From TrEMBL, chain A:
<feature type="domain" description="AB hydrolase-1">
    <location>
        <begin position="58"/>
        <end position="366"/>
    </location>
</feature>
<keyword id="KW-0963">Cytoplasm</keyword>
<dbReference type="InterPro" id="IPR029058">
    <property type="entry name" value="AB_hydrolase_fold"/>
</dbReference>
<dbReference type="Pfam" id="PF00561">
    <property type="entry name" value="Abhydrolase_1"/>
</dbReference>
<comment type="similarity">
    <text>Belongs to the AB hydrolase superfamily. MetX family.</text>
</comment>
<keyword id="KW-0028">Amino-acid biosynthesis</keyword>
<dbReference type="GO" id="GO:0004414">
    <property type="term" value="F:homoserine O-acetyltransferase activity"/>
</dbReference>
<comment type="subunit">
    <text>Homodimer.</text>
</comment>
<feature type="active site" description="Nucleophile">
    <location>
        <position position="161"/>
    </location>
</feature>
TrEMBL record, chain B:
<dbReference type="InterPro" id="IPR029063">
    <property type="entry name" value="SAM-dependent_MTases_sf"/>
</dbReference>
<dbReference type="InterPro" id="IPR010743">
    <property type="entry name" value="Methionine_synth_MetW"/>
</dbReference>
<protein>
    <submittedName>
        <fullName>Methionine biosynthesis protein MetW</fullName>
    </submittedName>
</protein>
<dbReference type="Pfam" id="PF07021">
    <property type="entry name" value="MetW"/>
</dbReference>
Length: 408, 213
């Protein structure tokens, strides 16, 4: 196991592969909370080639604990990229034709400015002095990357879960910057139940004595137990009862009988402990607080007197909403709410519900019908813009099954 | 690099169902069209490609929706009985409801919605007054099965079948103007209705172009 903070030191972060956009004080990142971040860094990764017209760019928004390494082996964990099944030659986001951009959100911990980076005013890690960021802030920050790359208008913006929130935010507030938007397993606001689960995770982190009021980096400690419990709770919400049952049932872990104690008797317990422990190695506890908060604050209808349709009036954007039957974190009813709002303004919208028993995490997995639908939607959009398209190449999942550890 | 190819580019002939060919002819090129109960998107794709309409679809079955979206069409999963109320007045030039009215829970309410959200509505349905249906019931005393209504009574989704005369009478009650009315004969040819009583006997399907009066 790696040392407590070896994978998270700023020196290692700066050595990460990929691109860095440095934001100077002349034009800081303006945040909803009133703060202005500068200097700041946005770490991003790209796949495929930008065409001469700069018209083939797709911005991929990552989810809560995802990052910019969407389609390559992760430089820290060594595991396949979180959306390798979606991005690549012959995949729905086809790198033979499209230029894919994925940016680590501000507040994150994979190279973009966040609570574990150094606060230039104090020379210490930001900790809880880092300003609270919102989904709108995340999207505005990513527009800066598009400005930097000279991309006026995206071919498509796409994301699942928190990434889907950003996609909807992009469509609602920056419709001139994007032709089509795909929002997967997401909602136009975070529900009370989802805020509740996030609060459990945050309380677990803050209850860990090693959290030290958020000043654990200076103390050389890591709130491992708290962050692991947060992850374990969240992980259950990403699955479904049938998926858990299929994977583990009541099977025992490396033993023939119950121990009459509190070891991980059951496979599902052992699995969750592993998920928690491995998460701590790659994710920063304070980042987890900040990013969950951004999701909680998200409510697209709030700026329109609670009427969601107001967010999309006269929208020229072509929308695709996707939900999964067994997703109880962002259920189909949430997607339908968005669809009804889009219908109310007669927007161009497609909506598909995909049959899957894999819960919320289905959006990260090899779901052929899901991929075929996205491919069709993207082809339809490409035709309208006279962009080239290609055929899907069926996935062959080798020995590296990326479904072992998901990062919703 | 290849240009996007649809699953199969439909031609008027490949629309198959003769009511669909007639509907396609009734729609002006370039209009905004909502096809309710669009199935796997055959008609909609034809309209988008051949008549350059701005096309949207609604379909109840998830397999139909997924197939339509995979064709590159803009289609949402939805139920004609409940989802039409979300659209604003006059959102479309034409709202199409082909062979779906008889499967809705409340055909009268659906009809009202159609002429509200579409400046025009096109409705087609199997005519239960068709002579073969009348004869079959008269001679055999069993629920009729015809090419237009192939399912047995216990498995059909058609819970609100009607005759052409029934439909015209409902339109009158609702203040809905019938601009054009056609029947589709046994051989698949459309015929503008001149005598409703005769059409009600000879027409297998009815196709109506409607608007709110």
């Amino acid at each position: 196991m790696a040392g407590p903070s070896s994978s998270k030191s700023p020196e290692i972060q700066r050595a990460l592969p990929g691109h860095r956009l440095e934001i100077g004080p002349e034009r800081p990142l303006e945040l909803d909370c009133g703060a202005a971040l500068a200097p700041a860094v946005l770490a991003y990764q790209t796949y495929g080639e930008l065409n001469a017209e700069r018209s083939n760019a797709i911005l991929v928004f990552h989810a809560l604990t995802g990052d910019q390494f969407a389609a390559e082996d992760h430089p820290i964990t060594g595991r396949p990229g979180w959306w390798e099944v979606m991005i690549g030659p012959g995949r729905p986001l086809d790198t033979r034709h499209y230029f894919i951009i994925c940016v680590n959100v501000p507040g994150g911990c994979m190279g973009s400015t966040g609570p574990k980076e150094i606060n230039p005013e104090t020379g210490e890690p930001w900790g809880l002095d880092f300003p609270v960021v919102t989904i709108a802030d995340m999207v505005r920050a990513q527009l800066r990357v598009l400005d930097h790359l000279g991309i006026d208008k995206l071919f498509c913006a796409i994301g699942g879960s928190m990434g889907g929130m950003q996609a909807l935010q992009m469509a609602a507030h920056h419709p001139e910057r994007v032709h089509s938007v795909i929002a997967i397993a997401t909602a136009a606001h975070h529900s009370a139940q989802n805020i509740a689960f996030h609060e459990i995770g945050r309380q677990a982190i803050m209850a860990d004595p090693d959290w030290r009021g958020g000043r654990y980096l200076e103390a050389g400690s890591v709130p491992r137990r708290g962050l692991a419990v947060a992850r374990m709770t969240a992980h259950v919400t990403y699955l479904s009862e049938p998926a858990l049952h299929r994977k583990f049932g009541r099977r025992l872990q490396d033993r023939g009988a119950l121990s009459y104690g509190f070891d991980a008797d059951f496979q599902v317990e052992s699995y969750l402990r592993y998920q928690g422990a491995s998460f701590v190695e790659r994710f920063d506890a304070n980042s987890y607080l900040y990013i969950t908060r951004a999701m909680d604050y998200f409510d697209l209808a709030a700026d329109h007197a609670g009427v969601l349709a107001g967010a999309f009036r006269d929208s020229p954007v072509r929308f695709c909403l996707v939900s999964f039957t067994s997703d109880w974190l962002f259920p189909t009813s949430e997607a339908k709410r968005v669809v009804h709002a889009l219908n109310a303004v007669a927007a161009d919208v497609s909506f598909v519900e995909i049959e899957s028993d894999k819960g919320h995490d289905a959006f990260l997995l090899n779901e052929p019908e899901f991929h075929a639908t996205l491919h069709g939607f993207l082809n339809g959009s490409a035709e309208r813009l006279d962009l080239p398209t290609g055929d899907l190449i069926p996935l062959e999942l080798g020995e590296r099954d990326p479904s072992e550890e998901r990062i919703s | 690099m290849s240009r996007a190819q649809p699953l199969s580019t439909p031609t008027a002939g490949s629309l198959g169902r003769s009511d669909l060919r007639l509907i396609a002819e009734l729609i002006e090129p370039g209009s905004r069209v909502l096809d309710i109960g669009c199935g796997d998107g055959l008609l909609l794709e034809f309209l988008v490609r051949e008549k350059s309409v701005v096309g949207r679809g609604m379909e109840l079955s998830q397999t139909g929706v997924n197939a339509s979206v995979a064709r590159g069409l803009s289609v949402v999963q939805g139920d004609a009985d409940t989802a039409l109320s979300h659209y604003p007045d006059g959102a479309f030039d034409v709202a199409v409801l082909s062979k779906t009215l008889q499967a809705t829970r409340d055909p009268r309410a659906v009809l009202r919605q159609l002429v509200r959200i579409g400046r025009r509505a096109i409705v087609s349905f199997p005519n239960f007054g068709y002579w073969r249906i009348r004869l079959s019931l008269l001679l055999h005393g069993r629920m009729p099965q015809t090419p237009s209504l192939p399912e047995a009574w216990y498995e059909t989704e058609n819970i609100h079948l009607c005759t052409l005369l029934d439909f015209l009478s409902l339109c009158r009650e609702e203040g809905i103007a019938v601009d054009h009315a056609f029947t589709v004969r046994d051989d698949g040819t459309p015929k503008e209705i001149t005598s409703p009583t005769l059409a009600n006997l000879l027409g297998q399907d009815g196709v109506f172009l409607l608007r709110r009066d």
